[in-house]
Amino acid sequence: MPQNKAHAPIQVAGIVSKPESETATRIVPELMRWLEHRGIETRIDGETAAYAGRGDFLSREAVCRSAELIVVLGGDGTLLSAARATGGCNIPLFAVNLGGLGFLTAITADDLYPQLERALAGDYAVSQRRMLHSELWREGELRGAYESLNDISLAKAEIARIIDLEVQVDGHYMCHYKADGLIVSTPTGSTAYSLSAGGPIMAPSVAALCITPICPHMLSNRPIIVPDDAVIQITLRSRSATYLTADGQAGEMLLRDDRVDCRRSAHTVNLIQPEGLKFFDVLREKLKWGGR
Question: Number of structural domains, the chain?
Fold first, then answer.
């Protein structure tokens, strides 16, 4: 569980924003003035620059490399993009929910300034989340590599065509899945796509990965949890059009006999948590978990 710890005060803050957000249109100019008044330097991405009416901006990757803390304005999708952009830089992410479910973006717009005041002073708690590293191999050659905070998925890209996936764990044959697809998720991603496909909820600190079939042909094919130091190999054994996606945002089409290797990433993401907020509080608030 995250614990409050004294950190060095922040001098340079980065801002990445969700595009086409009415709330961001109002918040960004206010936030820029608020930070400037406190002598905080800013690094901003293109979306933030558009809201602020400025022409100077950086790529998200450059923002994350040049700041000491990243303010993420948007929803979980914006946070997932920022998490991949940090590229293992070990920079804390201050994620503000600007609408929607916002399971990972636990800080509300109303709490933005009091929470940010504490964070800039170095008084904040961090929840460290391990990422997932996936590689696409085709005919013995590495064709692509992906880092994801939530999950990697292989899903059918045609109507009414199931796909055939062979799965091995640590070099041992596990099974064939005939299904609409397959999800490999981190504990963080267990409350996202995997959950909607019937996967279990895992606490963020659990050292595990979850393999969840999407609408399997055999009802006995259930989600399975494996240690996070396992290597999961998924080979496409059918010709059905299949798409590989990382965090629902990046990916490519697969060919028959392509193999996707999934393992624990060397990178982690540091999410700043509101004071006193626990994982089960988020479950109850966002998912109405345990409600009547």
Answer: 2
**What is the tens place of the pLDDT at every residue in 128-151?**
999 999 999 999 999 999 999 999
Q: How many CB atoms lie within 10 A of CB 30?
A: 11
Q: Are residues 90 and 198 in the same domain?
A: no
The one-letter amino acid code at 286 reads K
DSSP β-bridge partners for residue 37:
none
Q: Is pTM beyond 0.85 here?
A: yes
What one-letter code names the amino acid at 188? T
Question: CA angle at residue 75 from 73 to 76, to 5 degrees?
Answer: 120
Q: What is the pLDDT of residue 274?
A: 81
- Which of 45, 76, 151, 258 is catalytic? The answer is 76
In a domain, 9, yes or no: yes
Amino acid at 230: A
Q: Is there a catalytic annotation at residue 170?
A: no
**Residue 186's domain spans which residues?**
132-266
